[in-house]
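Recap for those who missed Tuesday's class. We walked through two folding examples back to back. For each one, the amino acid string is listed first and its predicted structure tokens come directly after. Nothing is annotated here on purpose, so try labeling regions yourself before you check the end of the notes.
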Amino acid sequence: MDLRSRLADIDARISDAARSAGRDPSAITRIVVTKFHPVDLVHDLAGLGVTDVGENRQQELTAKREAYEGDPVRWHFIGQAQTNKARAVRRDADAVHSLDRARLADALHAARPEDDDADILDVLIQVNLTDDPGRGGVDPEGVAGLAEHVAATCPSLRLRGVMAVAPLGEEPAPAFERLLSYAQSVRAIVPDADWISAGMTGDFAEAIAAGATHLRIGSAITGPRPVHG
């Protein structure tokens, strides 16, 4: 299938999954992950009505945002962020899905433009749903504390909700149910933090059933990633 057909196929599957869960498909945002693809793909996606794209690496986000000249899109940074890249991430991302520690929150807040008090960055707390501390995300026990830190000390960050990746070797549905409970704990601190970024090509139906508002879909729409050396 070509790009248009792949996009239509995924969107139809998202709509079916939403209706099966008793949800409105229009309440779900589909983010197309363009990792390793050239900026031309973002132009093509925008031409097909895509409004949200995702990148995993700061360097690639920066290069594509600088090169992109098409219809406006929202750029979501979904990879692990280093504090020394906070300024570039802040400049080039419209939303950061991978906030996992107070030090990163402080760095993103400190990177705000000094002459623009209206510049607000949307952020989501990434939760580690595994027992492996090497995986990205804050431990579930630290979610509420991180949310409180952002809300109390980082006024240029707008906490929108939570993000997670389903663990390998575990059925995604119970993992996403746990994420929903963590999302509720965040909303107890920031009531309008109602985003749940969860679900990729293989598990977005389970994520939708658990309340996901943002899905991160890559090669099922974009096609195989180019060989990356």
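Example two. Treat it independently of the first, because the proteins are unrelated.
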Amino acid sequence: MPIRSERRRSRVRLTVAELSADRRPASGAPEFPLLPVALLGGAASALAGWLLVAGLVMVGWFTAMAMPVPVALGFAGQFWLAGHGAGAAIGGTLVTLTPLGLSALFVLLARTVTGLALRATAGESLAGRDVLKAWALATIGYAVVAALIALASGAGPRVSWALLGGAVIGGLGAAWALSGRLAALGASHAALRGLGRAVLAGLATMTAIAAVVLVIGLLLGGQRISAIDESLAPDAVGSWLLVVLQLLYLPNLLAWTGSWALGAGFSVGTGSLVSPMLTTAGMLPAIPVFGAVPEAGAGGLWSYAWLASGVVVGAVAGWVASGPAARRSLTVWLVRAAGAGLGVAVVVVAVAMLSRGDLGAERLVGLGPIPLSLFLLAPVPMLLGGAASALIRWLTGGRRPATSDPAGEVTEPLDLPTEQIDVGASH
């Protein structure tokens, strides 16, 4: 009989995936009903965005204190509405060019504030389909505040646009905050898994190409940009505010340069066209970044090379969509890859349409990508690029079946709640 020192001691470790709601330790923190918490969370996120814009406007007000404070706050409300797609009335002129960078910042604020607010409610209130109720209530709270800001800022005729923009921004932020719970409501089909990652890869490639085009334009137009900046002659604070303003429109500029790289081009006013093949731009707005617009005339060989951007973007999305798909037929590979390329094209066209707008009247109307040209030139090359990359990957070895595990073991994740337990057994 073995003595105690000779006995072996084995350990079994189980890892906790999550604790069930009824076994969570009581924190002692008060819990509030879902209805007021979600509504106030959405409303608070809208007010947080308004305070951010008001702070930027008041920084500029300190350099021009002759302007009455109510006028400055009214301008802050107008600019806040512009970030929600409702336009801004400036000096009697309606500016409908939405600063998409500001819109993205509002979505981030809505996600953060709404997520913090929902922590004050009971966990059972966000279980199952009740999460949809939380999302809807937060969206309503944001939209109501958007309508109130429109009325308080003298934008009564645009209340409907403020409601719509508030619902979109607030809804996106709340959905982001509740993304984990919303995703748990339904499982995606096996054929669709991984397509979201492929579309994101294609969008990242398109953004990188657009950024390179924008940087090249800024470098080539450096002298014109400096001349416009000197003509404005802003003070130190004004220079910083001008930089911030242009950064808030950076996503718009990337959408425009992306449309340029795809061959669709963009407009900088009535009757103008900026594309790799031809540039016909007359009088430009007195904003430094517009100095990056090329001189009028036909494009060169270097500009024609950018027309392959759509194929490259589609190829990246298709390559990621095909992936190491063992035992899939070539047809499945082609459909997935072409679908990923088409998905990227849909998002690119949607963002390009949102980036369009007016900076005033007469010539400053219809700035942004050319809709019809982009509808024709974005989907086809991305779809073909995706299908071509999948075909290449399949022919170069991707069709080989996956090797089985050498030990013959199959590992699958368990979704059941478990706890981390150390069990000692003596033999």
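Answers for example two:
Confidence is low (pLDDT under 50) at residues 5-10, 15-26, 401-427.
Residues 75 and 90 are 8 Å apart (CA to CA).
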